[in-house]
């Protein structure tokens, strides 16, 4: 039986690295991201299904759920950084914060709800990608960190409510990605971990299936 994974934010960074790792392990993949060209290149490379779109769009969430009538793994990896340069909370634009909450909290919950029947049928797993900004008080990271803290609590409750599923909220640590470069600069980001190494650790997590909970990979 072939395992099926749905990965959001799969056109670059950790999402793409994890897709490559799972493809090498024989998984069937459904990939989504907003950037159609990059996503379709990734899907062609991996023999995956590409469904481009915005995870905050309910119609797109429905398309994704219809594409995975059988699902073993949902990876809510798509995420927004918010306003850059990163502002302090005292001056954080509230409309921008609402949009960030929609991307980083509401959208993962909506997609999880949409695919829960498929996950339950296969006793599947959910990986929600979080951050140490969810628990640490880092100046400038308050907006982003608050959304990740909310995602962690959603994950925590989901794990309690769905005991037949494995639910992990995973802090991957700093990775050399475009998002980190946007936040701290390209030079500092270049010194961070290779997303491929983090993806390998994530695959080990899924394969070994420990009890659900918060997982720090670095």
TrEMBL record:
The keyword Oxidoreductase applies. The keyword ATP-binding does not apply. Coiled coil: none annotated. PROSITE patterns: ADH_SHORT. Pfam families: adh_short (PF00106). Its EC number is 1.-.-.-. One of its GO terms (molecular function) is oxidoreductase activity. Keywords: Oxidoreductase. SUPFAM superfamilies: NAD(P)-binding Rossmann-fold domains. It is an enzyme of class 1 (oxidoreductase). It comes from the Bacteria. InterPro entries: NAD(P)-bd_dom_sf (IPR036291), Sc_DH/Rdtase_CS (IPR020904), SDR_fam (IPR002347). Belongs to the short-chain dehydrogenases/reductases (SDR) family. This is SDR family oxidoreductase. It comes from Nonomuraea indica.
């Amino acid at each position: 039986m072939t395992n099926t994974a749905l990965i959001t934010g799969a056109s670059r960074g950790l999402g793409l690295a994890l897709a490559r790792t799972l493809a090498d392990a024989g998984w069937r993949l459904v990939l989504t991201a907003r950037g159609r060209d990059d996503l379709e290149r990734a899907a062609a490379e991996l023999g995956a299904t590409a469904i481009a779109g915005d995870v905050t769009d309910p119609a797109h969430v429905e398309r994704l759920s219809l594409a995975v009538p059988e699902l073993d793994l949902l990876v809510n990896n798509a995420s927004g950084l918010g306003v850059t340069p990163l502002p302090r909370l005292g001056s954080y634009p509230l409309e921008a914060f609402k949009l960030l909450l929609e991307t980083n909290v509401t959208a993962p919950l909506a997609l999880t709800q949409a695919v829960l029947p498929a996950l339950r049928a296969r006793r599947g797993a959910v990986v929600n990608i979080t951050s140490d900004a969810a628990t640490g008080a880092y100046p400038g990271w308050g907006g982003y960190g608050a959304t990740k803290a909310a995602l962690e609590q959603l994950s925590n409750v989901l794990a309690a409510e769905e005991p037949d599923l494995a639910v992990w909220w995973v802090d991957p640590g700093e990775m050399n990605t475009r998002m980190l470069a946007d936040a701290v600069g390209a030079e500092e980001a270049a010194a961070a971990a290779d997303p491929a190494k983090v993806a390998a650790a994530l695959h080990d997590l899924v394969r070994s299936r420990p009890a659900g909970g918060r997982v720090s990979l670095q």
